[in-house]
Predict the 3D structure of the following.
Amino acid sequence: MEMTRSAPSGSASSVAVETVADRGYKGIPIGLERGSGSRKLLARMIRVMFPHKGIPDAPYIRAAEAVLALACEKPGRQVAFAAAIQDLMNLDFEAMDDAAALDHLRAMSATDFFTQFQGKALLAFYDDPEVWEHLGYEGPSFDKGGYVNRGFNDLDWLPDPRIEEYDGGEQ
Amino acid sequence: MKQIALDEPAVVIIGSGAGGGTLAYELTQQGIECVVLEAGPYLKNEDYENDEWKAFNQMAWLDPRTTSGSWRIAKDFPSLPAWIVKAVGGTTTHWSGATPRFKEHEFKALSTYGPVEGASLLDWPITLAEMEPYYERAEMAMGSTHRHGRAALPANNNYKVFANGAERIGYKRYATGPYATNAEPYDGRPASIQDGFNFQGDKSGAKWSIMVREIPRALETGLLDLRPDSHVVRITHDASGKADAVIYADKDGNLHRQAARVVCVAGNSIETARLLLLSESTRFPKGLANGSDQVGRNYMRHLTGSVYARFDKPVRMYRGETMAGLIADESRFDPSRGFVGGFYMETISLGPAFLAAFVEPGAWGPDFAEIMSSYANTAGMWIVGEDMPQSDNRITLSSNVRDQWDLPVANVHFDDHPNDVAMREYGYGKAAELYDAVGALGHHRTPPYPSTHNLGTCRMSERAEDGVCDRNGRTHEVANLFISDGSQMTTGAAANPTLTIVALAMRQADYLAGELKRGNL
Ligand SMILES: Cc1cc2nc3c(=O)[nH]c(=O)nc-3n(C[C@H](O)[C@H](O)[C@H](O)COP(=O)(O)OP(=O)(O)OC[C@H]3O[C@@H](n4cnc5c(N)ncnc54)[C@H](O)[C@@H]3O)c2cc1C
């Protein structure tokens, strides 16, 4: 089951077709293999999408790998992703500053490529324990005995409220 | 375990969730043998995962479904209209535990609200007074806190924000329950360890579910033949129009036929309707028990929405019992607010993985990242209220998508009613007011998640032409066919539905047992 959103039709293949028509297959990194530069470019894209200052590159790279794995599942998707990535490389996306990069992503946000990319990147990035740690989430807790003795009620900036039901009768 | 022969006409229950599991337990307690066919696997507490996506992928119903209509789900999650579990215990494995009762006037929605344009409101053919003894039994079975002398759960961090906000804006009816997770050991199960993973199945066993209580006890009687990984694909009938067998696929896709004396369908509203539609025949051309053309219609999902608020200090909403916080002030009937029906506010928490996916589906960019960056300082609440039944909000069979058995999947069509929209807007506003009163820096209005409450597709009605089953859940058209889950509900009320599903199943069990003993079935 794919948790990505439905995509407007046609856009990915039209991107691919145009690119293929303009430049031939030669320039397209069909393999999307490590070291092809795709990974770094995608990681940069993910950082522009989900900017968190304190979070190092590693989780962004892992999310990029998850996107590449999704791209490589089906040949049609693979060629569409490859074409879109090639386009971004041609535009020197990685050299754009944050504002320009954000504008560029906004401009392409209706494409099928972007929708699939965003869905997968989001799922992978925010499901990463290193990201959880930065956001202040502690992950599995059952093996640690839950939070019953570890702060389930340690909020101290508000008074302790009533827990029993109101005894002033029904409305 | 009991083994009932395939050719022995048995009491057959389809689905082992809140409705089906309760029915199996109650019948076996009364000495009646039954077969339970459950599409999903038999997983236990130790199998459950403390991880949102792993747990979801382990147990959620992931067979394909399709969607249509103007609800946002059709755009954001087109193949996931609902969050329902496919496993022994059904969705009670992932449920959180809020157990308010329906109110007297909610059983009389049409007479109380009057006709509402575009809505197919009806009065239930039963009253609160008739339900009360069953509510008491259900609260005992499920161990609802605050009821029958049971202790309240303590305040967790998310509740502290919620309840203080409630008090400051003048609400009075707030508490940590009623909630079907033990504050103290009860019924052989331990007290909550506040691990924050009850949406993922609760490994500790403190939370009531059909899997921890009804199934093992029904098995102990030696009268239950429980068959997991058994997906019912058709109910058949004899020449007289009575149900005579069910056909199911095992996990390898082999078909089996279990003869039946009585068939009780409890597959949760989407699948219950789908199964009746799939069981069409020359005699029942629109689907079994569907002479009224009401099967699949009046699908309700409760009006829902969430508000997540950011503070300048830590909240850590993920620690502790997820939904052990409830405000009932807005559950009253008060059309001066601009809508009929009421709603509850309940604490909710998602981990970062689910929050990212659901807080604003499709969103990204700096504003979205800020919501996520504030995670530790975020408090959350869920709004759950009565939505209007509409005859075109319905389950139909897909004309082009098929499941793993090559059967048409369910299409879920849903449009919000203007009353739903008005109530949601009002609820969002009240939630924002509540959080502002305790110093929120900002809040986000989150749209409804894939439906966790699925109701009404085979509703109870006094008259056969208005619904699918009668006051006992017995279908108007097929004398030995019963609807035993949330799809019986005539209207949805504001309260979370499971206490009522369990109470209805208990009531149906008493009726069924009586009819069986009298030789009427
Ligand atoms: C995250 C979450 C939180 C929730 N919290 C609350 C709460 O706080 N309070 C509350 O009241 N409710 C809550 N609910 C809702 C509650 O879980 C459901 O209302 C309840 O479980 C529905 O009962 P049911 O019997 O209709 O269906 P289910 O419990 O879903 O059981 C149906 C079963 O039937 C099986 N089945 C379906 N089709 C077939 C077939 N053809 N053959 C064989 N088996 C089949 C399914 O696999 C499933 O196991 C929550 C739900 C979720 C997802």
